[in-house]
Amino acid sequence: MNEIQVTSGLLLAAALFMLGLIGVLIRRNIIFMLVCVEIMLNSAGLAFIVAGSKWTQPDGQVMFIFILTMAAAEVSVGLALILQIHHQLKTLDGDAANSMRG
Amino acid sequence: MKLWLIPALPLIGSFILIVAGSRLSKRMVAIVGSGSVGLSALITLFTGYKFISTSATSFHYQAWQWMDVAGFSPAVSFHLDALSLVFIFVITFVGFLIHVYSTEFMADDDGYARFFAYLNLFVCSMLTLVLADNFALLYLGWEGVGLCSYLLIGFWYTEEKNGYAARKAFIVTRVGDTALAIGLFMLFQNFHTLNIQQIAAQAPQQWAVGSETAMVISLLLLGGAVGKSAQLPLQTWLPDAMAGPSPVSALIHAATMVTAGVYLIARTHAIFELAPDALMIVGIIGAATLVLAGFTALTQFDLKRVLAYSTISQIGYMFLALGVSAWSAAIFHFMIHAFFKALLFLAAGAVIMALHHEHDMYKMGGLKKKLPIIYWTFLIGASSLAALPLVTGGFYSKDQILWLSLAGEHGNIWFFLFALLGAFITSIYTFRMLFLTFFGNEKTHVGHIPGNGITIPLLILAGLSTIGGFIELPHSFGHFTVFSNFLNPVLPSVSVQEGFESIEWMIQLIAAGVALSGVYVAYIFYIVKPGLSEELKTSAADLHKFWFNGWGFDSLYDKLFVKPFVFISDINKKDIVDLFYDGLVWISNFFNRIFSYTQSGILRWYIMGIVIGGILLLTLGLIKN
Amino acid sequence: MILVAFIAVLMIGGVIAWITSQWNSILSRWISLIALIVNFVLAIFIWIQKPTIESSNWIVQFSAQWIPSLGVSFSLALDGLSLLMVLLTFFLGIFAVLISWNEIQERVGFFHFNLLWVLAGITGVFITMDLFLFYFFWEVMLIPMYFLIGIWGHENRRYAAYKFFIFTQASGLLMLLSILGLYFIHGRVTGTFTFDYFQLLNTEMPADVARWLMLGFLAAFIVKLPVVPFHTWLPDAHSQASTAGSLILAGLLLKTGAYGLIRFVLPLFPTAAAELAPWAMLFGVIGILYGASLAFAQTDLKRLVAYTSVSHMGFVIFGVFAFNELAMQGVVMQMITHGISTGALFVLAGTIYERIHTREITSMGGFWNKAPFMGTIGLIFVLASLGLPGLGNFVAEFLTLLGAWQANQVLTIFATIGVVAATAYSLRIMQKVFLGNFSSDKIVPDLSLREKIIMVPLVIAIVWLGLFPQSVMNTVKQMISAQFNTEQIISNDTENENGSK
Amino acid sequence: MQLTFYIAGAVAIISTIMVITRFNVIHALLYLVVSFMALAVVFFILGAPFAAALEIIIYAGAIVVLIIFVIMMLNLKEEAVDQEKKWLTPDVYVGPAILTIILLSELIYIISLGGASGVVGQVVDVKDVGKSLYGPYILGVELSGMLLMAGIVGAYHLGRKKKKVVHRFLEKIEE
Amino acid sequence: MEVSKINIIDVLPGIFLVTASLIAMLSIAIKRNHKLIFGLTTISLLGVFVYLLVYASNHRFTVEPLFIIDGFGTFITGLIVMSTLAISLLSYAYFEQREERKEEYYILLLLATLGSAILVISKHFISLFLGLEILSISLYSMVAYLRKRPRSDEAGIKYLILAAFSSAFLLFGMALVYSVSGSMNFSGIADYLSSANSLPLTMQAGFGLMIIGIGFKLGVVPFHMWTPDVYEGAPAPVTAFIATVSKGGMVVLLVRFFTQIDGFRFPVIVLSFTIIAIASMLIGNFLAIRQNNVKRILAYSSIAHMGYVLVAFLAGGRLGVEAVSFYLVAYFLTNIGAFGVVSILSDHDRDAEKIEDYQGLFWRHPKIATVFTAMLLSLAGIPLTAGFVGKFYLVASGVNTQLWLLVFVLAIGSVIGLFYYIKIIATMFDKSVGTETLALRPRLYLINLITLFVLSILMMFYGIYPQGLIERIQDFLK
Question: Does C209 touch chain E (CB under 8 A)?
Fold first, then answer.
């Protein structure tokens, strides 16, 4: 009974994913949103590693690395944008950025 | 064979007047207008002579094939037999006389050319109607005369009420025409042709007497006839039609067009004879109409309206005659009626013109001296209308109807009594009219003294309405039957019920007595004791009003058909169906608003949307699995 | 090739007219006039020269590859019906150009471009024998028509144009679905995927499928026709369009619906159509009476005339679904005569509008006094509209009713009552516009020479059709009797009986 | 082994909960680092030591630091924390929380029943990963380079200091 | 496994794009020159296209394990490259009028194109993901490229958060699929599925989550909400890019993935897509009818159009793929044309997005108005335009597989769509007011006009004579 079930790993990933999701939903601060999206991406990476581990393939980890890359790139662009927005609107309120609607 | 020229000449005349009328001088217009009809009349004479001299049963001429579709192949072709000969004779001659009359009567009118154009077109249509060898062409003429009637009633179009009268005439007759059209559809369905002769020949073979189809078709044809001839229940248009110029009333609304119904029934007598019940209805309609219209005529004060109601009443006689299968009697009365009624209308027109368009009889009077020729001719016409015995044409024609309504094979005592009552009323209102107009004191100054153009046609017509009666004399009077013999190849003669031959002279005596007593009553009321009629009027005011308004038919129809139609049309002016499509637009906009609400521009909202979408997708998967 | 020429002349003419208008707007008028006259003469030429129509239905045929991979060909053919419709198109087209001679003063080139392209689309609809191409032309005619209404229309043009466009498009899409359904069913059954009309005839399919497919076609046609309750685009479009637009709408565009019924619905789905017949006839009658009632209530002259169209077109669907040769001949006649008479009434309304700048009949009256020529013309077309014998419309309506009587007597009675209603609304035009007292504050000159040139041929045409309709009927006879083989036998019998004249 | 996994998992979950509920961004980020580290442990247990290392180096090291840099650049003050307090009210989070719980329970149901059974824990070491990366997935690596380039170019363009920022802002107010 | 020489030739288009972007970046480092970069971009794009034109064939081969290069992919790659070329032609004038630094845009444009091109040839989750992310990350910056505009930033951050968010879903879904199937290769998944009797629940959930990611990129309901905001905020040429290249790439991927795994065996998936398609067609159109911002109208219309495409996608089969291909061509041409008009009319202050900006356009700039009219009519699916044939094709494929409900909704959607297309057209032809007092004073560049002209000619040509293109597509799909 020292083995870890795949389902446990996936459930952990799912739980983290949902926490990230709830974070995106409830936080109005754009930085928080960005962070929570990172959590979601990370948990997706966890899921890949669980799956890769199940099949004893390196592919899961490879995917995780690419996710990592993407997360880094995304965060950098996102932060640059946040800087911009802070300059423009003097706030980081996601709800405030609603000049386009209808 | 110049048959086609008879209708074509007036048509050409009309065409010339329409196209070039405004550029022609009045003289030229008169020449073209009356000349074309005159020529037509001449050709009619010539044709009639040839017809009689060759003792042919019919002449036939086909101008061209009108249509030819799937067995429906009416041609523009004319068929002349004794019946149509009588009709074209009356149409062209009376028509010509009225044209001549009009050249003077209308001389001061702006629409001189237009008037003659319409009149010519009318003559053409009427001739087409009676000469048509098939029902389709007959229908063309039928509608054509309706059109001309419309145009001529509304001739003085600047008066709005004339336009309405014209429209009423057209629409009411069209109701009848609809019935006629449906009758034609049924005829075609049964015979696969609309050729009148073929149908007449086939009908007795195809149907037994009393056949239901024959009955229905007869009634539908009757519907057409009733509309055109202003019989119950479609009589309401004719009095209003008096809005037209007097020659129009004379020609169209007295002499010719309104008798088209009589012609139609006579023409299709083969079908009607297969449907005795329908014939009975014809008779009933005739009897009822003649009495109803007579009573109404009693109460009118407008000279022309009296004549209009009298026309309705007289056509009622014709219908009565048709109803008892007294075909030639009906046609005989038609002819005589055409003469004297045209005469009366023309004379009345002359009176009205002389009195500056005064229509009210109570404002006339004493014209006997001022307008002697008019008076005398009017007197002749009136006597004929009242059927004063022996010397008037009307006596002979009406007497025959009275006699056959009792003694004819389909006759009965009720018809006779109605006819008798009608005759009595007729002579009352006729002489009331005469007394009021020409006797007593002068109430309006006479302006225009009629010239030759007016008097000569009057004289000729007076002559005709006197002499005309002598071509058909009853048994008791020498039994001279040129007219019915002449018509015999087309219209079967009527057989008299047994036992009645002997009392014919009695009937004649009664009829003569009734007519004369009517004159006497009128004399009492309007010459001897002028106040009496007023008393009567006030004592029975409601009845008077009821009769005056033509037994309330107008208001009844108004409430029953016109008002509801106009009401429904008006409330639905904006088209209720459109609401449905507006509703669709509204729904679209509603959806738009709802969905637009989701596009709030708020980021978290959009994320929520995605999450909800995800939940839905997963739930769907769970449910379906 | 002559069929291609019909379309090409119009399309190219349209483009040239547009281009030349940059320099000279009169020139573009002349160009479009000439293009139409050329086509009209060509069509007349075919009519006169046509080989004996008894031999084959099809007078001229043309076919070329277009999108072979989808089974679409550029296939045109002309039979009697098409020929008549094409003749009518060019005939009315000429007057559409003439009537806009003075009325249209801005964007003349673009106007004529649109005008000619509408006509090209209509011509295409009438002569194409490929369902894809048919749909193609069906839609092609909408856009220019949209512009004709939307740019040169009256005050409420935008709404009207919208409505017109969306109604016709929506129904057209349903037709597209049906066309495709037919295409695939035929393809599955026979293995050849084609849009060719002749091959798609007699496609075997289950009854309920046929019913649905037919409804798709029907949708497009009854909206165009229009049948109540799909008619509400028509009064708006007709009354808001410029005179030429109304003329084309009433005279031609509605006819495409009728044409579609005859050409496609009946031959492609004979049994399904037969099942539907009583209902279709019922809707025809409703249309006749409802349109008449609405026409009677209108005070806008063009709107009034528009509703008369609804009423008159009721006869078309009524007759089409009577399923016999008589009614069908009546329908064809109705298409032509309605085109002429209603077109003429719209032209008349346009000329009146040019004079007094209103379409309200309450502010008209007594025009006969000042403009007797106009009055006479008006009278003639009013009479045509109420179905007076001697004018073309009578022949049409009489034949339709006569034929329909054999199919359904109760409904025919009601349809015939519609004629009375027609009298009521038609005479109302006469009464309100030409009769009555002339109010002196308006200047109403009589028709000008140009307007006479438009009106007189129309009058001649309507009278000619009323008195000598046989030449027209002969043209379509072959086509119609091919559709009603069974009826032919009956009619032969009666012809023998009638023949002895 | 199993116990370690569950403990690490629990730490990850708890610290993540802390991340999303903190009002102060820096605090949240620190919890985030904890969460990442716990995950690194999980990775290790799952037999992915390379991934575990990267998790710490890149996520906890690079990314979080980057975020902190930006926060410092923005110079967020105490008001920001108050602001966060104001924003995070029950009416904001109840709805989303319910939605998420629905989604989570669905996922839990699916994952626990849905046939992804099996055991994990077999080590796939750096060598295998490296072989795989520079073997079949070499083009992927190249592409990830392009990905980073896009990110860098974008960040460079967007993050460049603007000269007329204040002016623009005022302009916006004037509107 | 070594990368062999033949493989390099196979992926040459990609290498070409990569090189071009690298050179562009280097040249910026040396000297900024808008014209130069622009020229470089267009030439390289043209080069790729010519290469594809000359060497491409319907020969089908794979570059294991990531890519599959077949006729379909090649065709769409060509389409994407040409579209980018057209967009870059339009971009030049657009950015020339703006004071921003312009050069980086082209790097991003090339990279985004690369991402899209990778999407269409990928046969593996990794390449799918990488292609998607290259595309997305380039787009984040492109959307927010005009820093002068607050809306641009707003759109950028919205797009970024949402795209990353949906990417997370996609990734999680892929992970679930991978955990069940043991392969990230499409063919591997297909193998697994063909051996499995039914769809395992986890896998189904994985597909479900993937659909979220894909659906987001396509902008279909209910993942569509970003579309109007991003369309509105992004610079007009970028909007054109998002509307066409970005979505097109995803459509192809979707088709490829689900065709390969034969996902239509599973009613759940079909049902999901059916609901999505219907919702997109209806809601997209409904949203647009009272909209007064042209870019937003086009955004909503694109939602609906993606719904239409899903009809053909669901129809599947050869005809379905043909329909999708043809429709994409028509849709690309039309949308680039439409946004081209928007960008050409924009001045340096703002984009020409208000409907009032188009008031009476026909009387001011008849040529541009005519082009726009043609494009709108094509979107509406009116004959003589490629959009008509495209829609016809879609309906045909739907009818062929008897998706009556879908085609019926398609028809209804098209009708609702007429409302707003016509609204814009009517506004352009309405001469009544506002012709003098115009806020926008765009500078018209010849190059733009020529591009638009060529686009409309092509659009009309394919509308009148689609045979050539159809043959081409059929050729490639063999």
Answer: no
Residues of D in contact with B608 (CB under 8 A): 95-96, 99
List the single residue in B with minimal CA-CA distance to E166. Answer: B610
Angle between helices C392-407 and C372-385 (to 10 degrees): 10
Q: Please indicate, yes or no, whether residues B256 and B286 belong to a single structural domain of this protein.
A: no
How close E359 comes to chain C (CA, Å)?
A: 13
E225 close to B (CB below 8 A): yes
pLDDT of the residue at C501: 36
Could you list the residue range(s) of the whole structural domain that residue A63 is in?
3-101
- C269 three-class SS: coil
| DSSP string for D95-145 | HHHHHHHHHHHHHHHHHHHSS---EE-----HHHHHHHHHTTTHHHHHHHH
Pick from D159, C328, C86, C161: which is nearest to E418 by CA? Answer: C161
Residue B180 covered by a domain: no
Residues comprising chain B, all counted: 625
- Give D63 to chain A, closest Cα distance, Å: 6
Q: Do C184 and E465 touch (CB under 8 A)?
A: no
Query: Residue B411 falls within a domain, yes or no?
Result: yes
In contact, C284 and C312? CB cutoff 8 Å: no
pLDDT at residue B1, as a whole number: 52
Residue B386's Cα: distance from chain center in Å?
21
D18 and D39 together in one domain: yes
- Domain holding D91, by residue range, is 2-124
- C426 Cβ partners below 8 Å, 6+ apart? C308, C382, C383, C385, C386
- My answer on whether B128 and B104 are in the same domain is yes
Going by pLDDT thresholds of 50, 70 and 90, the confidence category of residue C266 is confident
Written as one letter, the residue type at C382 is V
Contact check, Cβ <8 Å, D146/E21: yes
Q: Classify residue B408 by its DSSP letter.
A: B
Query: Is E147 within 8 Å of D158 when comparing Cβ atoms?
Result: yes
**Structural domain of C468:** 275-490
- Residue D12 near chain A (CB below 8 Å): yes
Per-residue pLDDT reduced to its tens digit, D25-68 = 888 999 999 999 999 999 988 888 889 999 999 888 888 988 88
Complex prediction ipTM: 0.88
* Cα E336 to Cα E454: distance, rounded to the nearest angstrom: 11
E15 touches D: beta carbon within 8 Å: no
Task: List Cβ<8 Å contacts ≥24 apart for B159-165.
Answer: B159/B243, B160/C435, B160/C436, B160/C437, B161/B243, B162/B243, B162/B244, B162/C435, B163/C430, B163/C431, B163/C435, B163/C436, B164/B240, B164/C431, B165/B237, B165/B240, B165/B241, B165/B243
Contact C491, C406 (CB under 8 A): no
Q: Whole-prediction pTM value?
A: 0.89
State the pLDDT at residue C493: 44
Q: Is residue C68 part of a domain?
A: no
Tokens 């879609």 sit on residue: E394
Percent of chain B with pLDDT over 70: 99
Compare CB distances from B604 to A94, A101, A102 and report the shortest one's residue.
A94
Strand, helix or coil at B481?
A: strand
What is the predicted pLDDT for the residue at D163?
A: 53
| pLDDT tier for residue A57 given thresholds of 50, 70 and 90 | confident
Residue C495 has what pLDDT? 45
In sequence order, the 6+-apart residues with CB closer than 8 A to the CB of C282 are C411
Categorize the per-residue pLDDT at E434 as very low, low, confident or very high, splitting at 50, 70 and 90: low
Q: Tell me, yes or no, whether chains A and C touch by having 3 or more C-beta pairs under 8 A.
A: no
> Are the Cβ atoms of E204 and B609 closer than 8 angstroms?
no
CA angle in degrees (0–180, nearest 5) for B340-B342-B344: 65
- Are D158 and E144 an interchain contact pair (Cβ–Cβ within 8 Å)? yes
B266: in domain: no
Report the relative pairing of strands D119-120 and C72-79 from DSSP bridges.
unpaired
% helix / strand / coil in chain A, to the nearest 5?
Answer: 80, 5, 15
